[in-house]
Specification:
Number of domains: 2
CATH superfamily of the largest domain: Response regulator
CATH architecture of the largest domain: 3-Layer(aba) Sandwich
Shape: elongated
Helix content: 25-40%
Structural class: alpha/beta
Order of helices and strands: EHEHEHEHEHEEEEHHHEEE
Strand content: 15-25%
Distance between the termini: 19 Å
Radius of gyration: 19 Å
Strand order of the largest sheet: 2-1-3-4-5
CATH topology of the largest domain: Rossmann fold
Number of helices: 8
CATH class of the largest domain: Alpha Beta
């Protein structure tokens, strides 16, 4: 998942970013409420982890603005505020879940998995095209009955290609979705990861699934089935 963390405690934000990356997620972090809200415009986040006591714009205001803009991104509030009225207010403004500080990180990961299950629904977490299967919940990838071991970035890249099957995706789109928003667009990191992914997915005598569209980007062809 691509996750936006809006948390003004710098060390806590860094801890969350490192922990979420280790768990296979891509994370952007803002310490300012207004800038955090601004980051949601034009960036397709799958989850927002939100503190409530923030400079320039508090978490309640961010929730209100998100819903007024009809932004459906799930929000997990993580706050030291523990008064029941404050919890109720956050949930009524559209938060999907609420955790009180201090919190257990493993519990946070479990809640994130629950939010992900709600987002994909009871069906739709298994993506298949031809003899390739990707499980969004277990993060397993199988090609021709053989499990393929992917890095976190490679998994995110393959998921992005599958969810945009039969569409040419550009390097800029991939950088925006899978790498930090401040990543150098002049880097060849996309080409390197795509090369490694294709070595694992399209190897030996298998029919290639991923194509390079010269001058435009990359294309995964085929009918994707969600189950």
């Amino acid at each position: 998942m691509k996750i936006l963390v809006i948390e003004d405690e710098v060390k806590l934000g860094q801890f969350l970013g490192d922990g979420l990356a280790e768990a296979g997620h891509v994370c952007d972090h803002f310490t300012d409420g207004a800038k955090g809200l601004e980051a949601t415009v034009g960036t397709d986040y799958e989850l927002i982890i939100l503190d409530l006591m923030l400079p320039n714009m508090n978490g309640f205001e961010i929730l209100s603005n998100l819903r007024k803009a009809r932004n459906p991104t799930p929000v997990l509030v993580v706050s030291a505020l523990s008064d029941p009225d404050q919890v109720i207010q956050a949930l009524d403004l559209g938060a999907m879940d609420y955790m009180r500080k201090p919190f257990d990180f493993d519990e946070m990961l479990a809640r994130i998995r629950t939010i992900q299950r709600r987002s994909v629904g009871l069906a739709g977490y298994l993506l298949s095209v031809g003899d390739l299967q990707l499980n969004l919940l277990t993060r397993e990838v199988v090609r021709a009955g053989v499990r393929v071991n992917l890095s976190n970035r490679e998994f995110a890249l393959l998921e992005f290609l599958l969810t945009h099957a039969n569409q040419v995706v550009t390097k800029t789109q991939i950088l925006d979705k899978i790498w930090d928003i401040n990543f150098d667009p002049g880097s060849n990191i996309v080409e390197v990861h795509m090369y490694q992914l294709r070595k694992k997915i399209d190897k030996d005598t298998m029919e290639p699934l991923i194509q390079t569209v010269i001058g435009r980007g990359y294309l995964l062809k085929g009918e994707v089935i969600k189950s």
